[in-house]
Structures are given as structure tokens and as C-alpha cells.
Amino acid sequence: MKRKIMILGAGIYQVPLIRKAKEMGLETLVVSIPGDYPGIPMADRFFPLDTRDYEGILQVAQQEKIQGICTSGTDVAVRAIGYVCEHMGLSGIHFSAAKRATDKALMKEAFHRHQVSTADFHKVCSREEALQAAEQIGYPVVVKAVDSSGSRGILKAGNGQELQAAFENARAVTKKNYVLVEEWLDGEEIGVDAFMGEENLEVFFPHRKFICRAANTTIPSGHRFPFDGSPRLDQELRLQILKAAKALGLKNCPLNADVFVKGDKVWIIEMGGRTGATCIPELISVNQGYDWYEKILQAALGEKPDFSGKSNVSCMAKLVFSPVTGKIRKIDREGIEALKKQEILCQMDYKEGDMVEKVLNGTDRIGHILMKTEEERKLNQALGKLYSCIWLDQGNLEELWKR
Question: What b/e sequence results for 253-289 when a residue is b if at least 16 CB atoms lie within 10 Å of its CB, and e otherwise?
């Protein structure tokens, strides 16, 4: 009989995980709310449940006697994964760690207790508390919803008026009755993906981030591998990432962290108990010469993945966004195929006739582009060509970005 793997989520970031599981000969049990999600028709079996319904998911997992459970690119499903792993003795994150990894307030408190280098913060429940916290920390500050991802509910505030707007923005996104007011750090934001074993990091991938502005915040628009920091910075990154993972209680799971660096100084901003989004698994796979999704699935099944890299290929990727809300009128498929013939990976998440949103956060992606290169200039040239292949009602996407 085929081994059963339960995959939580059926969106763009779970599709490659589902595809790889099927290639490995696994029976894919996909859990998602019903909707027009690309992973649903790919599933061997589909279960229409909210990925936050960990009691309902556990019941199905026990009935089906699954051998593993996992996700990719989303924090929403992590608590359910921890709940199932803990109750069924499966390999992966435990429920207590999952709760800390999906609530930024619990996370920051754990960092503080374990002396992880992180930004100063206050947990607040009202505008008055938020204003007091900002005065104590000193402007500018960042206001964050504690249970969101994709940069939703996160805004920078430089004064009291902006702080109140940022507070209301975060409260509109969160399901909690509190948000964070956090110190604004002056440095470079990078990312770190890794796999945490029982006690140590099995593998460790710092990477440069490409950042773009949206509304009054910054969002990751892509990543570049490998990381070119100093040996001293690399050592400090490893130390702080390991301390943060242990502070949260992460074990036998992939992790993704947002980090600020300045010189050789490191601040851990947040850490999730799952692999990153924004093409990170694809970039790790190209960079290392093995399939990162396969490693995630092997670990979820209780196997010990071999993380010995076969290469260290320079590669980078960026998301495709739209500067306006509109309907896709035309996609030049021949133009996209011409890019693919140059070994440039192009993916469109939408088809002709679909509506796309103006970019406000990372979930507003409409596709991505990835290539082997050390030069961002070359990636930008390829991205421009991809944009020139897409027309909205308002005009060609490349021209819209130039306005």
C-alpha cells in the first residue's frame, strides 16, 4: 500500500509539494477550504476543512492512518501540523512550538527569555497602549499583527498619527485582541532557511532578500543565493538562528526566519516552523542540486534526509506583481516560452480573464521568475521581458510599471 502524506493547503505554494509527493509514489491527502485552488484537482484525495481546524484534521488523520503531515510557504497550517504530530507521534513540529511560531507576541517573549538578539517590543491592546509603547521605544516603530503572514497587518509609523493608523490596520487583520509595537531597525533585511533536527541545525541557508515598497511597508519580492556575508557574520547568524529555534522549541522541521544584519550584528525578527515562500524551496533546490520539497516530505515521513549539497549554484528569483488592480487581457505564451528556452523559469499563477490585485503584500503575487545568475541586472532584464508578455485592461504590464 502507498504511504499516506497529508498536505495542508492547496494554493500556489503547496502545489510543488503535492506534485513531488505524487512523484515519490505517496498517496496525497490534501486539506483546504473549498475554492478555486490549483492543488485540489491534483490531490489523490481532498478533504474540505479549514487548515486551522486542528481537531477536525486530527480526526481525519487518525481515520486515514497517515504516515506524515506537512505544508510549505504558509504559517496558517502550522498549528494543525503540530497538533497532529504530537497526538499521533509523527515526525515534525510539536503543538507547543507551533503555537509560539505562529504568534509573534509569544515568539518575541520566548526570544527575550532565551536571550536571542531581537528588536525591542511591546504587546499592546489599545491605541493608548500603542502610543505609550512607541514613546518608550522611540519613533519610528513597526506595528504588527501577531498572527499574519505575507507582510499583512505590518506598517511602519514615524509619529503618533501614523501609529494610530498602523494600529487600526493591524487590528483589522489579526484575530487576537493584541498587536506588537516593535523597534524599527536600521540595517539590511535578509532571510534564513534551515532544517532543525533534534538539537542542532542539520542545514543552514542564509540568503539575500529583494525588497519592494507597498503602501507604508516593505515586502519581500525575491531572494538571491548564496549568501556572501563575512565568516564572522555567518557564525553569528548560525548562533542566533539556533538559539531562536531552541527558544521556540522547534525540532525535526524546516524553518524560515526574517533577520536584520548590520556589520556583524544580527537581530532575529521572526521565525516560522515551515519552509519559506517566495521561491525559496526552488532556489535551495537549484543552489544545492537536490529537491528541497523531497527533503521536507522525507522528514515528515520520519526518514532522515541527506542534506549533503552537490553544488553551490548562484541563482535568484523575483515575484511578479501588478502596480494596479485589473483583469488580465492577454498573455503572450510564445514570449514566455522563449524565456524558458534560455533556462529562465517563468510561472504565471493567473490566466487570461482573471482579476489581479494591486500589490499591497506578498500574497498579491501573480507569478514568479527564477534564473541561474550572479547579476541582479540580468534577472531584472528577464523580468522586464516577462512583464512585456502580460497585458491588463489598463495596458501592458511593463509599461504600467514605468509610469
Answer: bbbbbbbbbeeeebbbbbbbbbbbbbbbbbbbbbbbe
